[in-house]
Write a structure and sequence with these properties.
Blueprint: E1 7-13, E2 18-21, E3 27-40, E4 46-58, H1 59-68, E5 74-87, E6 94-107, E7 125-126
Parallel strand pairs: 4-6
Antiparallel strand pairs: 1-3, 1-5, 2-3, 3-4, 5-6, 6-7
């Protein structure tokens, strides 16, 4: 039987990311995400529900999240569910918590963590390097530079002797 554990979340951070490092130097960042759900009830009244979700990221993505994300910033995270279990030291009871392990991160909204969303503004960018995606230049880009012309290599097909 096939298995699938995939989560896709879009929401706002409820606090600044907290980064820690393992003894071997791997970064671990804890995020808290608020995801809103809005609907109308049978009477036509607008209803809203907020779900708070803990997210954990590892490695370079964790470092990028800690560096560029701040409280209130909209973000899109893909990952998987993980169940943590432990014994409560105070009561001795078995405790558990469901969280998301983030595997992919996309910045949404403007650069300075302002409001916004994925509404096609072109300002978001999926994490692929140490920096968030750059904004498009304000002036038109110049055409790509042409490589120098080599008379031996740039000959027309009729000029080739074989």
């Amino acid at each position: 039987m096939p298995n699938l554990n995939k989560v896709m979340l879009m929401g706002n951070l409820t606090r600044d990311p907290e980064i820690k490092y393992t003894p071997k130097g791997m970064a671990i960042t804890q995020l808290a995400l608020a995801v809103n759900r809005v609907w109308s009830n049978e009477a036509g009244e607008k209803q809203e529900e907020v779900t708070f979700i803990d997210v954990e990221m590892f490695g370079r993505k964790a470092e990028v999240a800690a560096e560029y994300l701040k409280k209130g910033r909209p973000v899109f995270i893909e990952g998987r569910l993980k169940l943590d279990s432990w014994d409560d030291k105070a009561s001795g009871q078995k405790r558990s918590k469901l969280k998301v392990v983030g595997e992919s991160l996309e910045f949404l909204g403007g650069r300075e963590g302002g409001s916004g969303g994925a509404g096609g503004s072109g300002e978001g960018g999926e994490y692929s390097s140490a920096r968030p995606a750059a904004r498009p230049p304000s002036r038109p880009a110049s055409p790509p530079a042409r490589p120098p012309v080599d008379p031996d290599l740039d000959a027309a097909e009729d000029d080739i002797p074989f």
